[in-house]
Amino acid sequence: MTPISAAFSCRCAAQPRVAARSPLPAGWRLAGLLLSAALLAGCVVGPDYQKPVLALPLAWGQAKAAKPAKPPALAAWWRRLNDPLLDALIREAVAGNLDVATAKAKIREARASYRQAVGALFPTVDGSGSATRAKSVSAGSGSIATGNQFQAGLDASWELDLFGANKRAVEAARYGMDASEEELRATLLTLIGDVASNYVQARGYQARIALARRTAASQRETAALTRTKFEAGASSAVDVANAAGQAATTEANIPDLQSAHAEAVHRLSVLTGRAPAALSRRLGKPGAIPRPRLPIPTGVPADLLASRPDIRLAERQYAQSTAKIGQAQAARYPSVSLTGSIATTGTRLGDLGKSSSISWSFGPTLTVPIFNGGQLKAAVEVAEAQRDQSFLAYRSSVLSALEDVENAIVSLAQERIKSARLAVSVANYREAASLGRSLYRAGTQSFLDLLEAERSLYSAEDSLIASQVAVATDYIALNKALGGGWSGTIDSGKPEIVDIATGPHLATPEQFGAAAEASPPHGADR
């Protein structure tokens, strides 16, 4: 910007107790006129934000039209999985997760930025003081003179927000503060879903490991029986080899399952803000796969606008970008500042304000942008384009949320059907395997028929466990898609980092040690 500045001020210097004799009334009148114009105008340029109205479906695609939709029950939805250890891990993750701590710091940053923006609406006052000692030597007489000088003063300035640039900045900062709070809620939603999903996966791997061990032991018994029959001449060496190979194949699945279980436990430890192996002993004991109480109410699509933090975050970002258009437009208009100063000078410190000279000045400064090569206009277009992007991002977040819910509803419904069919399959194969062993011992059934029955039973039982895990995982995904997150209190005003002699540290350093395994991190229930 290439501004033209016009400063109107009046200056005088006088001894104390002597009034100024020349007030320059014309300058004062001009300042008064400008101030009155600023107060009366109250002009704020740029578009005012209005929350967008979107046309949403009236019901979900899989919903029955005859039944009215019940609102979703999202508060502490994970408790319906009926697992106290999972409840404890979620509390610990909320208290110790580093992504949550980062989101809290962003909230504090946004609040401080808002206070900065509000501060620009008020005048600024600065104080100054100086002390000098001078020495001079006369060239003719060679005499030496020394003296002291002390100065003190106040400088004040106030930018009149004629076209609302500062008001729009405050508005944008307020929306940014709201967005940071929604970002924390979105982080918590993702965190809780990840903790629950990894916990269910860990329990599922434990169940599959136990199944593989039981099945391998049963197959080892069959192999021993086959060897006994071979030694008696009632079986072939091929049957002995097949029986031993079947048991070894089942046992070969165990290392992969143990590795996957360890990875799930490591992920849970990191999600709670601990070292990867911190929860290994705590989660080493086998536990049942959590089974949710189903079905659950899903409400209507319009509920997502209030429940999904990512949608609310995108809406606040859209509002913030709208306010920034007004900031850019205000920069194209003239600006007026009122400045003033008062200073006192004396030869002794105690003379300041008493036996010293006093000077003061006051006046407005008008800045008018005349030629800047189109930069200010381009800045408005940039802000408008960013606003458009934010609006499209908001629309996209709504569509993505609708898609998430629809997919989760279908996946959960179909997985429940699959799990029920697999349960029937397991019951039938279990009966077939039991009868097959009895007939094989009696010598009325071939070994190949028994081998196939045992293989089918193991495959069906393993698939059933995987399906039970998938049902719980789809339940978690549906609650996440509906916007179910943390509804408890979060203290975002307290810093998570403390400065000590050796540098910045987490306020709860025990989170990184195995000592945290026995008890939740400090502040887990806040």
UniProtKB/TrEMBL annotation:
Membrane topology according to the record: Lipid-anchor
InterPro entries assigned to the protein according to its UniProt record, in alphabetical order: MdtP/NodT-like, OMP_efflux
Annotated keywords: Lipoprotein, Membrane, Palmitate, Transmembrane, Transmembrane beta strand
Compartment(s): Cell membrane
Domain of life the protein comes from: Bacteria
NCBIfam families, A to Z: outer_NodT (TIGR01845)
Family of the protein in this entry: Belongs to the outer membrane factor (OMF) (TC 1.B.17) family.
Protein name (database record): Efflux transporter outer membrane subunit
